[in-house]
Amino acid sequence: LYVARAVKRMREDGSICKMIGVYIQTSRFDKSERYSPYIVVQMHEHTDDLLLITKAAMKGIDQIFKKGFKYKKAGIVLLEITDKSKFVPDLFTDYSHRHEREKLSDAIEAISVRFGKNLVTLGIANNQEASWHMNQNLRSPSYLTKWSDLPRIG
To answer: What's the pLDDT tens digit per position in 71-100?
Structure first.
């Protein structure tokens, strides 16, 4: 879910990335042992492909996850971001698959725009029966990006 949101924003900006940082954290306030690893996973090419970036994020999680900890927070950071229109591909990378993957990403976004967000997701990213959910009850309003979050006067 975090990756899908970040990739959506990156695509809206017309950007692509080559690396992704992944972190998980236990509670800072819990008296038990703390664990807060962070890993950077490099992809083979600059991309805005949701599937490739998700695969890289899962690779990172697999490397840093340890059983026995009660995780409180997780997140991702897209790194080495560049403007897609100014990107110059190297001669040794095969970009033939890129057009089909872009069509798939565009189709997923079009479905989300037309029928509502999170209708089409990867795997169990939006599983409503999952035992965990993002804790967003203390999230600040998005005054600068959502008209609906602006305070009303009068």
So the answer is: 999 999 999 999 999 988 778 777 777 778
Q: Domain extents for the chain?
A: 2-124
Q: How many CA atoms lie within 13 A of 75 on its CB side?
A: 8
Q: What CA–CA distance (Å, rounded) separates 74 from 5? A: 14
Whole-prediction pTM: 0.74
Q: Are 59 and 41 in contact (CB under 8 A)?
A: yes
Tokens of 5: 């949101």
Which CATH code is given to the segment(s) 2-124?
3.30.1490.100
Give me 15's structure tokens.
């950007």
38 three-class SS: strand
Contact yes or no for 40/20 (Cβ under 8 A): yes
Task: Determine the Cα–Cα distance for residues 98 and 35; give it in Å rounded to an integer.
Answer: 38
35-47 pLDDT, tens digit per residue, is 999 999 999 889 9
Instruction: Tell me which DSSP letter residue 150 carries.
Output: S
Among 84, 66, 89, 74, smallest CA distance to 21 is for 74
The whole-angstrom distance between residue 2's C-alpha and the CA centroid of its chain comes to: 4
Q: What are phi and psi for residue 85, nearest 5 degrees?
A: -70, -20
